[in-house]
Every structure is written in structure tokens, then in C-alpha cells.
Amino acid sequence: MKFAPITLTTTNTLPMLLIYVVVFGVLIFFMMRPNKKEQKQRQEMMSRLKVGDSVLTRSGFYGVVIDISEEVVIVEFGSDRHCRIPMQKEAILTVESAEDELRRAAAEKNKDSDAGTGKKSWRDRRKAKEEAKSEALETANENSDGGNDDKPFEV
User: Fold this and answer.
1) pTM for the model
2) Cβ(75)–Cβ(65) under 8 Å?
């Protein structure tokens, strides 16, 4: 039994290697592009950061910026605003400026009102239901005896 000689051809390996390099390059490009875009957005957000802006930190705390330096931001936390913590700018996750909050509140008010249709939004209907429940509880408490009267206990 005779076997055919095995011959190696190197002419087909160059195009195949070129295809692998191109595919690998495209993969790297699409993996790096979102990161660069995110970094650019983050740098823009940090450049617009100013005193009085509301921020969300990476640890999940909401606060208000009271002082800004090159790398450190002092943020005030809590409802009494006595907790002031210096932190690095990288610790800030999102920034919401006071003007953005006012615009969002005005847009939400206009959206919820539905002035032309006369319809109430779901928030208005829910608020009305809660008010009706609280009024019903108040009237029930007023009408109930409660045991606070001066009459003796009757059996």
C-alpha cells in the first residue's frame, strides 16, 4: 500500500491570516468605541459640574455639591445638611443641575395636567383616591365613640 506524499502549501495561509487580523481589529474597535464615548460623556458631565448641583454617588447617596476643587468635591448629604464629605470626582455617578430639575418639573406638570382634554393623569387620580381615604378615616374617627366621653360604661 502506497500513500500519497503530503505537501504543505503556504500560499493559502497569508489571506487567512489577513482575515483573522481584520476580524480581530474590528472586534477591538467595537469593544473600545463605547468606552471612549462613555469617557467623553463623563468628562463633559464633570466639566459642567457646579456648586448647587444634585449628585448621585457610586455608593448610592444623593447630595448637593457645595465646593469644587480640581480633583475633590465637597458634597452635603442628609435632610439637615450637616453632613459634608469631601470625595473624588470619580465617585460621582450622575449630576443633575438645578435648572434641569426645574425644567423637568415644569414639563411633568404640563404633561400631567392635560389641560385641553379635561382628563386627569394617573398621579392626580391616585392622589385624589388617597385624599378621599384619609378624609373617610378622619370622619370615621370623629364619629366613633373612642371611649373619651364622660358617660359611664354601659353594659
Assistant:
1) 0.47
2) yes
